[in-house]
Amino acid sequence: MAKRKVWKPHDSPARWRAILSRYGLSKDTYQQILQEQEGRCYICQKLPQECKPKRNLAVDHDHESGRIRGLLCFNCNHRLLGWYIRDDVAKARRIVKYLTRKVDYGKVPDGC
Question: What pTM value is reported for the model?
Answer without folding.
Answer: 0.79
